[in-house]
Design brief:
With 525 residues, the chain is α/β, with parallel strands linked by helices. It contains 15 helices and twelve strands. The chain binds N-(4-aminobutyl)acetamide and zinc ion (ZN).
Length: 525
């Protein structure tokens, strides 16, 4: 299993043929700089290198209208003047005689990457492409984008490989409104985008880029927008966004494939984004995504206009995909107030749709009486009395939630291990807490009275050890524990029951041992 790198030199052919200050940043050197840096770092050679193919017109038709595809095909034969005139029909777009070929290669590269990952040829991968895709719409080019590479890849993965749920993570600094429109009513594709927004005063200036755009009809809750209202967002802000918004929702969604609209204009030095995140941050973001979908992560280049920052960030993503450890993030790692406000506003907007966002002691937008336990809460009439009440409730809890996100000390990351057999002389790292004690005998016995199968001595000791570990976790002494037990499933069941009855939200217990029978937790959800 390897990391695929999909590329074709011919994608450097398209370039701006006239003066246009808005478009001149999207140039061929973006690709050559990134590829050269991958070569210098010895990274290209560690990847499975695949030459991009052109997407067929049928494949483009998965997302785009036949008329639009024909119009784009026609650009190959236009004069410079005609190309410039057609470009003027769209927002922030330029055409070149090679654009149609490049754009088909860009979409084809994304499809090849998906093929490689879904057939098992590769574990994960990156497609380095131009033109980018995430602004492109069914019948419109937009923001340097001609065909929506990632959206086409998502539909293709569903049609060709039978994948059901796909997560699209758009970490480009611009809102991929094209992807949002294509999937806005589709619950099979979860679209997450963060973007420079500045309360609507940044391109593409859309009301629907704000956090309250959550999708339409059956797709409600499957569009997740995180607008940044200030420039200068850095590593701590990006990590907080992943940890407090994207990952909870993504775990609950449980995707079978992760596609990344990997733009690097969200990195430090980029003239478009004006953000502060360092290239190392993208290694961490990539690593975090690899816990989803069995590691099936396909990243496709979008923006990124600072050649040095772009190339370094691309290297960091490829290193993380290859499994190299991520360099530490330096600095105090404290999110900015404005970032926390944005994070809290998305959490509030999405809370009705995702139980993983319900916070203990507060349900930001809806009280429990209006929010049914099923996935879809009953809709609240816009502007109605419930809506007004919810708004008031939101602002009331907002500041306390902000304080909690900001100030609440997280328990130390510390692991305890409890071994039932003293013979198991394991050499443990020094920072691991070795737990010799067992839980009070009455506690264990009380449970064992109800479960006769566990009253044999070894299982009984194991249960005591595990309960003791659990106490350590619930007290905040340690954050996780490992117990070796001869009856893993039964003890695991007790631990989970205990954890749930304590209202625990952060219990990670691994029981190593024979699975005598699968834990029966169906009744507890
Ligand atoms: C793919 C991408 C940005 C367009 C900016 C226009 N497009 N001002 O980053
Ligand atoms: Zn961008």
């Amino acid at each position: 299993m390897r990391t695929a790198l999909v590329y074709h030199e011919e994608m450097t052919a398209a370039r701006l043929l006239w003066d246009d200050p808005e478009c001149e940043i999207e140039r061929p050197e973006r690709l050559t700089a990134a590829v050269e840096r991958l070569q210098q770092g010895g990274l290209e050679q560690r990847c499975l290198q695949l030459a991009a193919r052109e997407a067929s017109e049928a494949e483009l038709g998965l997302v785009h209208s036949p008329e639009y595809v024909s119009l784009m095909r026609g650009t190959q034969a236009l004069s410079t003047e005609e190309l410039q005139a057609l470009s003027g029909q769209y927002d922030a777009v330029y055409f070149h005689p090679s654009t149609f070929h490049c754009a088909r290669l860009a979409a084809g590269a994304a499809l090849q990457l998906v093929d490689a990952v879904l057939t098992g040829t590769a574990h994960n991968g990156l497609a380095l492409v131009r033109p980018p895709g995430h602004h492109s719409q069914r019948a419109a080019a937009n923001g340097f984008c001609v065909f929506n590479n990632v959206a086409i890849a998502a539909r293709y993965a569903q049609k060709r490989h039978g994948v059901h749920r796909i997560l699209i993570v758009d970490w480009d600094v611009h809102h991929g409104q094209g992807i949002q429109y294509i999937f806005e009513d589709d619950p099979s594709v979860l679209y997450f985008s963060w973007h420079r927004y500045e309360h609507g005063r940044f391109w593409p200036y859309l009301r629907e880029s704000d956090a309250d755009a959550v999708g339409l009809g059956p797709g409600r809750g499957f569009t997740v927008n995180l607008p940044w209202n200030q420039v200068g967002m850095g590593n701590a802000d990006y990590m907080a966004a992943f940890l407090h918004v994207l990952l909870p929702v993504a775990f609950e969604f449980d995707p079978e494939l992760v596609l990344v609209s990997a733009g690097f204009d969200s990195a430090i030095g980029d003239p478009e984004g004006q953000m502060q995140a360092t290239p190392e941050c993208f290694a961490h973001l990539t690593q975090l995504l690899q816990v989803l979908a069995g590691g099936r992560v396909c990243a496709v280049l979008e923006g990124g206009y600072h050649l040095e920052s772009l190339s370094q960030s691309v290297c960091m993503v490829v290193k993380a995909l290859l499994g190299d450890p991520a360099p530490p993030l330096l600095g105090p790692m404290v999110p900015q107030h404005s970032a926390l406000e944005s994070i809290q506003s998305v959490r509030a907007a999405q809370a009705p749709h995702w139980t993983s966002l319900w916070q203990q002691g507060s349900t930001p937008t809806l009280s429990l009486s209006t929010c049914s336990p099923e996935r879809r809460p009953s809709p609240v009439s816009p502007g109605g009395p419930k809506c007004k009440a919810a708004e008031a409730q939101t602002s009331a809890v907002l500041s306390s939630l902000l304080d909690r996100l900001h100030l609440c000390a997280t328990p130390p990351v510390r692991t305890a291990i409890a071994l039932t057999a003293p013979a198991a002389a394991m050499v443990l790292p020094p920072d691991i807490l070795r737990q010799e004690e067992s839980a009070p005998r009455e506690e264990t016995q009380a449970w064992a009275r109800l479960h006769e199968a566990l009253t044999q001595d070894t299982a009984f000791t194991a249960l005591g050890k595990v309960l003791h570990l659990l106490n350590g976790i619930l007290d905040g002494q340690v954050s996780s524990g490992i117990a070796t037990t001869p009856a893993a499933a039964s003890t695991l069941e007790v631990v989970l029951r205990q954890g749930l009855s304590h209202g625990a939200q952060r219990v990670f217990c691994v029981a190593l041992g024979q699975l005598d029978r699968p834990p029966d937790l169906a009744n507890d959800g």
